[in-house]
Design brief:
- The complex is a heterodimer of chains A (693) and B (134).
- Chain A is an alpha+beta fold.
- Chain A has three domains: 244 residues, Cytochrome Bc1 Complex, Chain C; 209 residues, no CATH class; 134 residues, Immunoglobulin-like, CATH 2.60.40.
- Chain A contains 18 helices and 20 strands.
- In chain A, helix 3 packs across helix 4.
- Chain A is elongated.
- With 134 residues, chain B is mainly alpha-helical.
- Chain B has one domain: Four Helix Bundle (Hemerythrin (Met), subunit A) (Up-down Bundle).
- In chain B, helix 1 packs antiparallel against helix 2, helix 1 runs antiparallel to helix 4 and helix 2 runs antiparallel to helix 3.
- Chain B is elongated.
- The interface between A and B is medium-sized, with 31 and 31 residues.
Chain lengths: 693, 134
């Protein structure tokens, strides 16, 4: 598992670094996959509502109304149908990438299980939405979906009557069924929206809208794809025939061909095992965590800055419990706390200038005591020398720090750069612990602890409390945001920060007021504009091409070209195992008067029903079906579908329902002339006996 | 000797805030008292100033919180004044660091007005705004 995680992570890192250079960190789609999912959801919802206006429920109306939407108003309904479909495919891709990424980057472990588990439920919802959507179109693909889904559901021992029997032949199909599908296709997304809301409950300031340019770009991509390769219906469904091949949407229906291989029960087991494994992942193996943040009430006045900044909603403001003159206090929910320390960075009492009393802030990570941190900073600072002494506060999730030649670099590891209180930077610079301080964190726009990078930037810029004091010269404060795959960028940033410190320009003497509040930073090395645009174009074409291709192709073979299909079916109660016995007068006398009306004893158990089919004297199907019900007193049901060679043949079908060992209780023969693709339904009904259709 | 005295007009009517105001006055008086002792250690004063800085930061944070939750209309002004005061206080700290000896009068001359001016003008205005309690 660990090596798999590492491998995915290396791949992701590489891809993300490349995208950072092409799109820039704020537009990198990989760092806002969740938000992109929300955007796709709205896109699907809006296009779906439009399509719903024109959709008709009914066996033939469903197909014909969609044909009308697609062709008569291709410029609106047609395009929206394609957008509806491709955005849905996109949602699958985005959801799985999101999941893969959170897994590879270890962001679903331990206390962060909630988003992971609710996300798994969302994947289920996406599939229910997609499958019911394909069903509604009632073309050949829908027929495949209907038959295969029914078969899958029928493998569960919870339905008395196989769902598959609803799709025996055109005669059985009811228009009401499409009303049900519409209902499901609206109810499922609504429930999904509820779960999407639940999914982000444990994240403060959850990002639900991607960057505007990214939304426009994604929308334009779908529009382009809709024009180049519009989503069209396949031939209308016809339950009396089975198409030789069908082109499924592989994003949603990849499981269907798989089921044809491993069987319905096999697929259930596969889904169950994978699902259980995925649900268990946050705890596999159990994450060792340091103690959660603690509040020191002696130093907490209830200012709520930690509450405002906690990325995981682990802090609440409660009424004061210690009788102090304040009205509120911060309370940490240890089950939600991920130990990032961003709350410590927000606490106004977390200032290293304090020395008259112990440096105990209002809120603190026990494993990263601030006094220890200050001592560490001072100790490390003493080892530095030269004109470019740099103290780096580094988080464990970003790129490694490699000191450049000619600079003297001391590294202090903190759980997140957001844990470093701005007064610490002030302290380092003002007390000349070093010539410059650098905050080295995760990739920009993609902080492991979600908001550490953002809050750090805003605190330095004087946009979020606590501000880094204006008087701290910003050319002595550097930020470096780089993921593990951006080591070279970090090395470059450190080297040029060191150079800048040696050749100070302008007001760089500590104590002089900052001219501007932006910290020093080395811009990301990005290729020339032309190369970037070319890469972006290639990316869009690749992404839309991928969607456009796997949304229809490759096709799946449902039967051999020369084969016909035979469907055997019944829902029929076998005979009673025992005849009813009339009570003797003695027995009657012993009964209470109101019980005497029954008059006898009728055991409820029934015989199983055996059915066999011979073609030209050869048995091609033989099966026994047990009666349903706890008392084995219900009907036996059969739905069996298999391929037979087309052509003229003699068929003999027979049924046994009375527990006898040989001979039959009913039988019928027919001269068949099966055409390739024909679906011959042989059904047994009482009364009436066998029918061939 | 008391350098700053609590005056009724300092009161904002918000118990949390007034409590901290009183505490702060105590700390400033304590610091100035240390300065006043013959041969006061510079480091001791540095540490005390650091302590006041932490408390004042926390106090402003709380005041800002109260103002925000009560929808105080002059929040931006008041907040700006807080930031200015913190900058000034840091300057006092740095000047003290840079100086070679503890000069009580100079510290007192800067600290006392620094504190009471803000009280008199900003906090009192907040008080007069007569906002409903949370």
């Amino acid at each position: 598992m660990e090596w798999l995680k590492k491998a995915i992570r290396v791949g992701m890192e590489w891809l993300e670094s490349a995208l950072d250079r092409v799109c820039g960190p704020t537009l990198n789609p990989l760092s806002q996959l969740g938000a992109l999912g929300w955007f796709l959801f709205w896109l699907i919802a809006v296009s779906g509502i439009y399509l719903f206006i024109f959709f008709d429920t009914g066996v033939t109306q469903a197909y014909s109304s969609i044909e009308a939407i697609t062709h008569d108003q291709w410029w609106a309904g047609g395009i929206l149908r394609s957008v509806h479909r491709y955005a849905s495919d996109g949602l699958v891709v985005v959801a799985f990438l999101h999941m893969l990424r959170e897994f590879a980057m270890d962001r679903m472990r331990g206390r962060r299980w909630f988003g992971w588990v609710t996300g798994l439920a969302l994947i289920g919802f996406i599939y229910v939405c997609g499958i019911t959507g394909y069903w509604m179109v009632w073309d050949q693909l829908a027929q495949y979906v209907a038959v295969t889904t029914s078969k899958w559901l029928d493998a569960l021992p919870i339905f008395a009557e196989p769902i598959s029997r609803n799709f025996l032949s055109n005669a059985e199909l009811s228009g009401r069924f499409f009303t049900l599908m519409v209902y499901l296709h609206i109810a499922a997304p609504l429930l999904m929206l509820l779960f999407m809301w639940v999914h982000i409950q444990r994240y403060n300031y959850a990002l639900v809208n991607p960057a505007l340019k990214l939304m426009i770009g994604t929308g334009a991509g779908f529009l382009l794809l809709s024009l180049v390769r519009p989503a069209l219906s396949q031939a209308p469904a016809n339950l009396d025939r089975i198409a030789a091949t069908v082109g499924p949407d592989w994003f949603y229906l990849a499981f269907y061909p798989l089921m044809d291989r491993i069987g319905a029960v096999g697929l259930w087991w596969l889904v169950l095992v994978v699902f259980v494994l995925l649900v268990a992942l946050p705890w596999l193996p159990r994450l060792r965590e340091s103690p959660a943040a603690v509040v020191h009430l002696d130093h907490c006045n209830g200012c709520a800055r930690c509450f405002d900044d906690c990325p995981f909603g682990a802090i609440t403001m409660n009424s004061r419990s210690d009788g102090a003159a304040f009205s509120a206090e911060a309370v940490v929910d240890a089950d939600l706390c991920v130990r990032c320390g961003i709350c410590v960075g927000a606490c106004p009492t977390a200032t290293p200038f304090r020395r008259a009393t112990a440096l105990v802030p209002g809120i603190e990570l026990p494993a990263f005591n601030l006094e220890v941190l200050r001592d560490q900073a001072e100790t490390v600072a003493r080892t530095l020398s030269g004109a470019a002494r740099i103290l780096v506060f580094k988080c464990p999730h970003g790129a490694a720090v490699v000191p450049p030649a000619g600079a003297s670099v001391g590294v202090i590891e903190v759980p997140c750069t957001g844990m470093v209180p701005p007064p610490f930077i002030d302290f380092v610079v003002a007390r000349r612990l070093a010539d410059g301080a650098m905050l080295a964190g995760c990739r920009e726009g993609d902080c492991f602890e979600r908001l550490g990078v953002r809050w750090t930037e805003q605190r330095i810029a004087g946009e979020r409390d606590p501000y880094l004091r204006d008087r701290v010269p910003r050319d002595r404060v550097a930020v470096s945001w780089a993921g593990p795959g951006q080591r070279a960028d970090r090395a470059r940033a450190l080297a040029s920060f060191a150079r800048a410190l040696i050749r100070p320009q302008g007001a760089t003497q500590p104590g002089a007021p900052a001219q501007q509040r932006a910290p020093w930073r080395e811009p990301l090395a990005r290729p020339p504009r032309l190369v970037r645009y070319a890469a972006l174009g290639a990316m869009v074409i690749a992404a839309t091409g991928l969607l456009g291709f796997f949304s229809h192709t490759p096709t799946v073979r449902l039967r051999a070209d020369t084969d016909a299909i035979v469907t055997l079916s019944f829902s029929h109660a076998g005979r009673s195992r025992q005849e009813c016995r009339r009570f003797s007068p003695d027995e009657m006398a012993r009964l209470q008067p109101n019980m005497r009306r029954v008059g006898g004893d009728c055991p409820r158990g029934r015989w199983p029903v055996y059915m066999q089919l011979e073609l030209d004297g050869r048995v091609v199907y033989a099966g026994t079906r047990q009666p349903a019900g706890l008392w084995k007193d219900g009907p036996s049901t059969l739905f069996a579908r298999f391929e037979v060679p087309a052509g003229a043949q003699q068929a003999r079908v027979a049924l046994r329902e009375s527990g006898r060992d040989s001979g039959f209780d009913a039988s019928a023969s027919a001269e068949l002339n099966l055409k390739p693709g024909q679906n011959l339904v042989i059904e047994f009904k009482q009364p009436g006996g066998f029918t061939f259709r | 000797m008391t350098y700053i005295e609590w005056r009724p007009e300092f009161a904002t009517g918000i118990p949390d805030v007034d409590h901290e105001h009183r505490e702060m006055i105590e700390w400033i008086n304590r610091t100035l008292a240390v300065c006043g002792q013959a041969g006061a250690a510079k480091a001791a004063v540095t540490d005390l100033l650091g302590e006041i800085y932490a408390r004042i930061s926390a106090h402003f944070a709380l005041e800002e919180r109260v103002m925000k939750t009560r929808g105080y209309d002059q929040f931006a002004d008041h907040k700006r004044d807080h930031e200015r005061l913190l900058d000034e206080f840091r300057e006092i700290m740095d000047d003290h660091e840079a100086g070679s000896q503890v000069i009580e009068e100079r510290l007192a001359a800067r600290l006392a007005p620094w504190f009471s001016e803000h009280f008199r003008i900003q906090d009192a205005r907040f008080h007069r705004a007569g906002l409903p309690s949370v």
